[in-house]
Amino acid sequence: MIWDWAFAFEILPVLASAAIVSIEATLIGFALAASLGLVLAVVRIAVPWTGWTISVLVELIRSTPLLIQIFFLYFVFPKFGVVLDAFTAGVLAIGIHYAAYCSEVYRAGFDNIHRGQWEASVALNLSAWTTFRDIIIPQAIPPIVPALGNYLVALFKETPLLSAIAVLELMQTAKIIGSETFRYTEPMTLVGLFFLAMSLVSAALIRSLEGLLNRRTMR
Amino acid sequence: MTEQPMVRFDNVSKRYGALTVLDGLNLDIARGEKVSIIGPSGSGKTTVLRMLMTLETINDGVIWVEGEPLTHMQRNGKLVPADLAHIRKIRAKIGMVFQSFNLFPHMTAMQNCIEAPITVLGMKRADAEARAAELLDMVGLSEKKDHYPSQLSGGQQQRVAIARACAMRPKIMLFDEVTSALDPELVGEVLEVIRKLGREHDLTMLMVTHQMGFAKEFSDRVCFFHAGKICEQGPPSELFGAPKNERTRQFLHAVLEAG
């Protein structure tokens, strides 16, 4: 028989603890991506002379493979005296990579804000900081939640890349089990099922968050 | 005139590329004066307000507010372009009401009115709310304070916008075609609030309007703009009653014909 239930149940606890590492990497990575992306988008508008630099930076990050960026942070940075453990380097690379994408999403959100909102903020003499915090960001975020949510799921599905620098996340753990037991069917299937389940769950969560935000803002 | 003007446009020009929108504008507005600006579209009349609100930069000249430069600041006896801190200090004296209201849609009427007093003036929330309640009462919208803009009619939104601008206690209020986006039956309620504001407060008011009847009745002075210049100005009785300039006559004829 190709599928061995007993073996599947035997490796389940190991995979479950590895899944926690995957989820941790996703959550920390996305928190970094969402906040750094917002900072990039805000700075680009608030400090106009940074526009060109940020555009180049974003384009550079988006146009090179994430795997290369992970390797760069983990293997090349130590040459410059910056030594990161595998998890930190990996999560940092994922976070920065997706921050570049998120910043474009935020930018689209800001572009959609009517010019009159900026002008009213000037007429009320609000500072740039207050304008972003109280006027622009609260209006810009709800419409872009679906786009940000897509990147959350995409980021999650890219965490197996961390296996390349031996972070003990799901993929790496499944590979180790496979090479030790010469059975790949069960670990790989279980890992695939896990990603499927988690992606479906997060998509559902994002949809309900979207509904909640729409109810709150579209009165 | 012994007292210095509240606002002075000193040879101010505004250009967009090759297009000159305002050409060497000189205009003094006295404290408490109500000035209406009329003229055909494209004559630069809205630009006057937008420059004073610092929504547009100027290419030439200096704008003064209460004897202090708005667009510039003094450094070593010379006028240099103003930095943001200086602009914000002078700009605090000016409020503006827009054609398209520009209320913050995610905030209630009350929240719209307390946002700037709390974050800019540093007022305590309770004080800001008390003041906003007075102002919403003045514009006749006490019972709508917890409504969001989308739950209000155009006329009500514009009245909230007036209350919001007043909450910053400006000395100069700018009204940019504030009734143009309203259904005809809602125009009256907004004009009534502006009338009240003119009576109850010692505000300097500058308005761009197409409501000739209101301009005639309300303002101390009317300026007719044409092609980036003041073509004719004077008390409403003169400008509407006996316009001297041919272009003014043509414009008034066309507008009164239509309206």
TrEMBL record, chain A:
* Keywords in alphabetical order: Amino-acid transport, Cell membrane, Membrane, Transmembrane, Transmembrane helix, Transport
Q: Which residues form a coiled coil?
A: none
Query: SUPFAM superfamilies this protein is in?
Result: MetI-like
**Does Oxidoreductase appear among the keywords?**
no
- Residues that span the membrane, as ranges: 12-43, 49-75, 82-101, 188-209
Q: Which Gene3D superfamilies match?
A: MetI-like
Molecular function terms from GO: transmembrane transporter activity
Q: Name one GO biological process term.
A: amino acid transport
Task: Show where the ABC transmembrane type-1 domain sits.
Answer: 15-206
Query: Which is a Pfam family this sequence falls into?
Result: BPD_transp_1
Q: Any idea where this protein resides? A: Cell inner membrane; Cell membrane
One GO cellular component from the entry?
Answer: ATP-binding cassette (ABC) transporter complex
Topology of the protein relative to the lipid bilayer: Multi-pass membrane protein
Protein family per UniProt:
Belongs to the binding-protein-dependent transport system permease family. HisMQ subfamily.
**What protein name is recorded for this chain?**
Polar amino acid transport system permease protein
For this protein's source organism, the top of the classification is: Bacteria, Pseudomonadati, Pseudomonadota, Alphaproteobacteria, Hyphomicrobiales
